[in-house]
Structure formats: structure tokens, C-alpha cells
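Reopening closed ticket. The problem is back. First fold of the pair:
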Amino acid sequence: MIFRDLGQSAESHAFELIFESDGTAMSPDLSARLEDCAGHCDWALVPAEGRRKTLLICDMDSTVIGQECLDELADFAGLKSEVAAITERAMRGELDFEGALTTRVAMLKGLGLDALQRCFDARITLNPGARTLVRTMQANGAHTVLVSGGFTFFTSRVARAAGNLESHRGNTLLDDGHALTGQVGQPILGREAKLAALEDESTARGGPGNAIAIGDGANDLAMIKAAGLGLAYDAKPVVAAQADAAISATDLRTALFFQGYAADTFVEAG
């Protein structure tokens, strides 16, 4: 067994243990020790081979950023609590995503277009480590993608703010030139579309096994489960239970530690 200190970044100090395995389930003792860490540290068991990924594909709302854009936008219409309640249920997998999105957007009919930029400027903030994750992977040759059930108005701006991700995908809010019409452009980008984005973006990069996918909601599960390394970030229980690993005690830089990057190789954001 080899012990390696990966160093400290922000409030996190990372270590790795490299050991041989026959590929069977981990021992009950190791499993129990790792479970004891829950809530205090984040950990992952990953194969050494192919550990560094060539594609980063991330959800936006409550993953790369700390907010749900639609909930914040609804606040400008005085409807945040109503919209947020639907969002929460959809992210837990209790509601059909497409139906829940259509319902929430319909509630915003008539909201002036100026509210979108005001919402972005006043409410939207990157989660800790987001820009460092993006820039470090880019510096090491990875392609970076933002894929969201949210809206292209926000994905375009967040992609730029988070380190100029090379690609972004989202839904389209329809308007009449002055205000929102309460409709969403079709087809809606939901769970299966996120999986399709992973498959499409990874085609030239050796397939989904060479990707790291990060998300928090039920509509992220398909891409998380299909990626070579699927991470749940501060996620709903249904997502954390099915991901390869979860990040809940630390920040997005941990996705770099999981790939074997040492802290002194991080491209820290200014």
C-alpha cells in the first residue's frame, strides 16, 4: 500500500491510499471505516488506470452555481416560494422534470426581460472550487461542458464566469421581445438529453468512460451513472445513493483530488 499526501486546498486536505485489489467488493472493515467519515470528509474508491478524465460535464443549478436560477428568477415575480417548492420535488425525483419545468415557467408569464439580467447580476454566484476545477482540467487537456435543465440565458453567462467552458447546453425561455411568454422552447432538455449530451461530447474523447459528470438532482442521474466517474455534489439522497462518490463536506476541488491531482498543480482562480 502506498500513501500519498495530495496537499491542501481551501479548507480541504487530501490524502490517497494506493493498493492492489482483485476487483471484488471492499472489505466490511474498510467499508465501515469509510462510512464513519460521512458528513466529515469526502472519499472515493477509483481505479488507478484512466483516473484522469478528458471530459468534464457539469450540471449548473446547485452544482456549478449555488442557486436554482428559476427559483431566483421567480422571486422577481413574487413567486419564489411557490416555484421553489416544485423545484425541490422535481430534483428529488418526485415529479416529472419536463412537466415541472413547464408548470414553473408558465407561472412567470409576463415577467419583463430585464429581470433576467438583474437576476444574474444580483443572485447568481459560483460554488467554491468551480472555476479551479474547470481551469485545472482545461490546463490538462480536458474538454469542459455545462449542461442544464435551466436556461441558455444563464448557462452562457455561467459558462463564461466559471472559466470559459468550451460548450454549454440548456433550455430556451420564449419571449415576445418585451416579456416572457410563459413557454419553453422544445424539445425540453431533461434527464435523457443530459445523457445524450454526455454521449455526444465524449464521442471524440474515447466514450463516456473518459468523462467525469457532476450533478445534484434526479435529472442528472442518467449522465452520472453513465460517466466513468459520476459524482453527486451536495445532492439529493436519491442521487448520492447511486453516484460513484459524493461531495458534501468539501467543495468542487475535491473532484480534482479524486482524479489524483495534487493541490500544488491546481490552476487557482483569481
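Second fold of the pair, where the issue appears:
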Amino acid sequence: MALVDISGLTIGFGAEETLPPVVDGVDLAIGKGEIVALVGESGSGKSMTALSIVGLLPERGKVRSGRILFEGEDLLKCGDAQLRSVRGARIGMIFQEPMTSLNPVLTIGEQLVEALIVHEKLSQAESRKRAIAMLERTGIDDAARRLRQYPHEFSGGMRQRVMIAMMMALKPALLIADEPTTALDVTIQAQILDLLRDMVRDLDTSLLLITHDMGVVAEMADRVVVMRGGKVVEEGDCTAIFAAPQADYTRRLLAAVPTLDDPPRRVGAGAFGSSVLRLETVSRSFGGGGFFFAKAPLKAVDGVSLTVRAGETLALVGESGSGKSTLGRLAMRLETVDEGRVVVAGEDITRLSGRGLRRVRRAIQMIFQDPYASLDPRFSIGRTIAEPMIVAGGADRRKIRERVGALLERAGLAAAMAGRMPHELSGGQRQRVAIARALAVNPRIIVADEPTSALDVSVQAKILDLMIELQEAEALAYLFITHDLAVVRRIAHRVAVMRKGRIVELGAAADVLERPRHPYTRSLIAAAPVPDPARRGERRHAAAEIEVPALETAGEWRAVGDEHWILA
């Protein structure tokens, strides 16, 4: 008998007769010790299906029909008290952003111990002992001290380890992981996936993995369930789905997945123009000071020099905390440099302020990771795109309105969308609006900070194609910040690899990705999941063989090929 047996599940919001269901007649079974991946685009019903298992649907969400059997008991017929006893103890859940699950005012130790006391009926001392053991098992050093720290003192990857430690301590029969690695860089992602796999193997736990990363699916899943429009469109063995997908939608989904085996972008002779962004030995530190005990400042960016030319995409890659986003913000003058110069379109913006800075900022614009957070929810789409033109001045309302319509169409949206609000658009549409807004003042370079990481693969491919098309038409330069190396392969001409505030490798994308010379770059590439179940396990073996040395405080650049450099 299956551990979980869902049949005919239909979920809707509002009146049944007026609004179509968001989950429509879904059948899903999960065996004991099995890993099932639930995949599909945003709005396909993946998360709603998972949330219904633990009775955590949004306020207006309602199960209209169907049943959810867990260990033979229909959870839809359980009362609140029964569901509370099942949650945590028998069914655990890990969310994309663990900060939404962890209480910010309680220490990590208090939260782990409380869960063990409530669900496992252990004493305070026994709970603390097991909490320390679980943190150590997930690779968290100095676990006893870490128990006294708060969630904000942990990185994203460490917080996700805490959630896995909590689940390991409670030993649930079913673990639901909703996009558990989406916001993490490849090395941390690989560690989290290894922990989840070990948990399934050691505790005989079943795992329902919700993700839009097909590399993660290929690496982890026994079976794959593909959803679209609230329905299951295909289901089967992971290897069979990747090798011979039957549904048109599944074929399109897999075809859109970027890989490190894709051909690199072609660069014609004289393809790039002059420099539009130049960073010269730029440094930025945070923290330091202290009254009784002096703290050494953290060097987020340490003496970085880079150049981006017209028509060129320079990808900036590295782990979380490597300084990528800080460097992007320094390029925008959203952060102030401690040392060095930032030259945009021939002008040193580190020395500008007021009107002079506003004038030069028209040459450099930014696209952010979360298109919803970067759009003002009170402004219509038209007002959002018009705002930079209004601030810049020099155009009347009629011309601005015409320009807004033209920009929407340039970004692949209908001009009529100008009257809509951000919440009425999908994630991909919102990112197109963000691109249209960035183009409003005719910039020469765009800083794109993880612009596709929050998007499904099919939407991601369309956004990348749009950015490439715009670049080729208008000689735009991109500083493209990402942790997704397959995306780098698709869009970048050159790659700069960043580690602990410093560039450790720089060269043409094909050279860096195909012939990496720095051990850190090799470790990043080895950690990236491959969207091919036949190559499962390669990542683990390759990553284990690479030893990354400590980063020396002083290092020299060494040429290892034609315009290919490493920090030796």
C-alpha cells in the first residue's frame, strides 16, 4: 500500500460555479522510501497539491472534492487537532525560504528543542542533546554554540540545513520539500540535495520534491509527475520521462532546459564596442568597529577590476556571499566604494552626486531577481515604465505614453497591458515589465542580478532569448549576476568567477566553462546538477575529487590561455 494516495483532488478559490479550480482531479501516489518530483510552471498547481496534504491551503482555498490517504487515513476528514499531531511528527515540510518557517525572535536551539519536546515527548536535556547531534549531522560546525544563535545569524544554506536537521530529528514518514534549493548557489544546493538523499536512505522517509529545476529532478527523483493548468499531464519513471517524454508539454519543458553542454554564444570579429563600464581596483567592506571588542571588517569586494564593453555580456558567478551582488550595487552606485573607481560611459561616478549622478545613471540600469518586489504594487504597469522617463525629464506626456506602448511591445507584451497592475501579471510578464522599465531611458549597460532564478525553465528561456535579442539589436552591455552556470553558458560572452570578494578566474565563457583552470571554478562546475538521470552521481564523485585551497590574501594574475586568467 502506498504511503500517500491522492485521488480526484480538486482545489478552488471562491465560488465553485464562477472560478475554475487551481487543482483539477489530481491522482498521485507516493511509496514508502520513494522520491517523487512534482514539476510544472508557476500556477500549475504543484504547491497547492502539496499544501493540501498538510491542511495548509491559503485562507480562501478549499478542497472541492477528492481524498488524501496518508498511512490509510483520509486527512481531509481529520479535525484540526488530528492534523496538528500529524504535522511535524509524521509529515514534515521544508519551504523555499526557511526564514518564513523559523521564528526570528527565538534561537535555533529553542525552536529545535521545542519541536522535539512537543512531538517526541523528550526531556529538555535529551532534546538539546539530539538537536546538537542533528545539527552536526547536517554539517553545521560548533553546533552547541550555534544553538544559541538566531535565524538571521545564519546564511540561507545554513537555515535550510537547520530545517533539515529538525526534520531528521522528528523522523517523519513523509517530507514535502517545496523548491528547497531554488535560492541557493550550486555548491550549497548540492550539499542540501545530498542531505535530503541521505535522510531518505537512512530514515526510510518518502520525499515529495517540488521544483522547477530539471537538473535537481534528474539528480534526485525516482518518479516524476508533470502538472500544467491544475492537471497531471504526464507521470512516470524519471529515466523514462527524460529519455522519451510522451506529452507535448513535457517535451517543451525539457527542450527549454539550459545545460552546460549547450553550444556557447558565437562572437563575431569586432563584435564588441568600447568600454561602457570599468571597475578599477574596487573595494567595499562592511562591519568592523565595536566598543569593547574590535571586530575585523568583512571585505565583501576586495580590489576587483573588470571591464564590460558595448554589446557584451560579462557573467559574474560565485557562491552566496562571494560579493557578486555587492559588486553589482557598486556598479550602480547603490553602494559607495571604499577604494577604487567605477567608470560608466567614460565618467567616474564615484565622484558624482546630485544632478550629475542622475544624468550618468541614465546610462546604467538594473533588473532585479524578484520582479514582484521590484515593481511598486500601487503603480500601473504604464506608470512603472514611465517613471524613469518622468524623473529624467524632457518629454511630454503624449511622447511618454507612446514610448511606454513601444517598450511593452519591444519586451514581448501588448501595449494594452499598460493599464494593468503588477499582481495581475505572471512572474515572466513582470520580469518583461522590469526589462521594459530598464530600457526606458536608453541605457548603454544593464546590471541584471539573478534575473531568471525565480522563473520556470520555459519562462526563463523566453526571458534569456529576449535579452539576447535586445542586446544584438541595440548593442546593450550586460553585467549578468547569477549562480546558474547553464544560464551563463546560454547568454554570456565572458565569465568572471568570484570568491570571497575577489575574482579568481576570468576569460571567454567557452574557455572558463569547458577548460576551467582554477580549482574553485572546477568545484562550482562539478557541483552543478546535470539534467540527465543517466549521469546521476557524477556530480558527487567529481566534486569529492576537487580540493579548493584557501584564498591567499595576496595573489598574482597568471595567463593560462588567450585572454584567460586565474588568480594564482
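Update: turned out to be a display glitch only; the data is intact. The chain has two domains: 4-255, 272-288+297-352+483-568. Residues 186-203 form the longest helix (18 residues). Please close again.
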